[in-house]
Amino acid sequence: MTQATSDLAKPAKPSETFLPIAGSRRAKDRAATVVFSLCFVLAVIPLVALLYKVIESGIPAVINPTWWTNSFFLVSPSSMAGGVGHAIYGSLVQAIIAAVISIPLGVAAGIMLVEYPESRLARPTTFMVDVLAGVPSVVAAIFIFGVWVSVLQFQLSAFAVSLALVLLMLPLIVRSTEEMLKLVPDELREASYALGVPKWKTIVSIVVPTALSGMISGVFLSIARVMGETAPVLILVGYTASFNFDLFQGNMASLPLLIFNQLSNPTEAGQYRIWGAALTLIIIIALANVLATFASKALAPKTK
Question: What value does the CA radius of gyration of the chain take, rounded to a whole number of Å?
């Protein structure tokens, strides 16, 4: 008995606990590492090449301060002057209007799918979200054209573009909200119910604040996603070289539409504007992603 106790008190030697890894398994592990590393490099090469080309060609435009504030109003197509301020304004306004409509609808739908799965609306909502997630942007634009312009007789406008962007943003917001709410531990809900807190108040005061950081991150990513959409702006609004502050009438430029418009400009100024607008769009989307990261960290539940 004394001998057994003394043996158990001794630390186990590695040779007694772990067997050496077989040579074949070590070779397979190294082969898998090489294959995965090669795939990663192959995936990164196009991205790096794209960024290099856009930055190299677009940097002369974006370092000019007037590029961010001026428009191309009364600027000749062959002139290197002017800026994309009108297109930046159009892209931001159309995305913000779409976000204002999409966020409450998407968040409410995500909450219903997670917190009230027994609802009669849960299954149809899930089906419609799956359908919308697979709809191409050109189909969403044609649908809005058919309803907004052909049936309701409204004009082509920036607001029509925003409606098409709503269809593209909704499934992203619903899915991100749904996934974030599923990560909230059930123990939090049960503890709240045990204290007599009603379900709606538990959702508002405990569940949503716990998942808020992830939900906001999903919202920002969805906004960044739709800002680069081209089909809605090509079908639902025309291009203009100046600022247009009327959302319901007249043409309004956006960065994707400006790039498409300048493709027909064969001069050097056309290439200058195309690459400058492309780099501007990448910078704005990158800033949205950075903002989403900061918001997610700032609103994350404090554990200490």
Answer: 27
